[in-house]
């Protein structure tokens, strides 16, 4: 177990393209760190530099207090789960898991004990004599994890380990990984492009864009206090809505009517002609279903609903709006960068599933203005970010983690399993 | 495929099979004919005799054929073995590493493979006599390597390219040195490729005639194809056709056996299960 410290890491390829550009990141001992971002953001490259499969152009990679830039992968004592599992097809499951131990010239009895222990944890006992070719996707995934946990590695590295599984299995394995990490208390770096995995698994999440770190924070801070347009748009599903706005006094005038800002936020955004308001889908509600007590905290507007999607526990409504040309272009570029293709400017709003709002008709919506963020459309910076509140959220997550690790190392019973269960429920 | 199409495929297959196997059947039948029967213009011998086989195995031609058989086996196995080992390393480097001159190596290998054997036989004959390699095993193994290596490198590098990079990286992360990763992961996975290459290389060496006849003069190193050419009939008016046919059948047997033994290993698909479904 060790902490991983990266100082100004740069990865430049032969053609001079910086895949990873000046990344500095501290991963604490026992922490679960997620590297997330759209494809091509450099997250996998960064992981491969930690494990030593990719050379570091400049900067320092320090694991457990020693600089490892020039060390071969086998000298770093890290274990890794690959996206395609990379199991050895000519070896049985037992020998696959035992492979690192055999390389370390461990004696036979000890190998058997350790492999059986790992097989217990991952429920692989009845498959130990089979070959990987005869296993299902989920079983192969577990074998790959077995190979990772069987030796006392300094840290676990996961490279999109769940992307080859179907949705249901992915959910199960996600909680499995979370439980395992808490139980073993080992520093973990996990690469994914799936934000559900990022939000549910990570103690902290590092959002990368074009090789640069955008924000490193707990999932809650990322969600509630994103540092810029990119993070705000990337985290959250359905994504945050961005509306063009102009400031008039303490009010933002938007296609969905005026939004009142408090003094702090109003002061932060003054002096700009055009702004972008970021509103999460769940800040909206069907106006007829809002409590009278809550109603004055937001504003009410009328809009024509294009499409509604009823999902049982939730309902989404799509509301198209007009936006100036420059804003439309900006939003389109952003959505392309986030691996999606937004064809029209429309807001996705989440309304109560009992709402009877109909497609193609006008309806009245209520908008909670307390938590909206305002962005500068040219730089993308979040003008209303409350750094203090954000830091508090991340501090809370850190305390939670320390508490959990202390409990699981003290007595490996209930609590760690509970946290896994809670996260599973949150993910569903 | 419809039923009709299937039938046509079957018929076409049988026709091709007959076309390919007919000469072999003819040779087998010839080998069982007596001297009087050879020119009887019939497929089957009128009386079946094993006289030809006894001629080459125990009779007058045996001191020509048996040492040649031993030479052929020895020389071809050694040449195959060396060429497999060398081409394994070469192919691994070609498939995995990026180094200047990679293209050059591959195209040189191809150039060597298509270079006509007959044009280097004469200079080689002179050279070998000068340095004492003439009529020795080594004197044949070296030119056989030049025949087998290019092809081995090409087939083997195709096999190595199929093995996912991650296998090796996983081994390295698990604590293996480059050499350990190669020996414990890559070589077992490449086994079908190695066997395929070995069989092809063995055939090439086994079938060679030009080097065999030119670079040897006695039974010290003369391989079977060359020895067959030196068979003589019982009298000078009689062709040794029957004996040659019998020898040809015997020479074919190891090749067939080799393919039968390794055909399961040749069928690739061992990497199945290494990566996602």
Describe this structure in words.
The complex is a heterodimer of chains A (428) and B (277). Chain A is built from 13 helices and 21 strands. Chain A has 428 residues and is an alpha+beta fold. Chain A folds into 2 domains: 4-223, P-loop containing nucleotide triphosphate hydrolases (Rossmann fold), CATH 3.40.50; 238-383, no CATH class. Chain A has a 6-stranded mixed β-sheet, sandwiched between helices. Chain A has a 5-stranded antiparallel β-sheet with strand order 13-12-11-14-21. Chain A is elongated and about 75 Å long. In chain B, 32% of the residues are buried. Chain B is mostly helical and 277 residues long. Helix content of chain B is 73%, strand content 0%. Chain B starts with a helix and ends in an 11-residue tail after the last helix. The interface between A and B is medium-sized, with 33 and 25 residues.
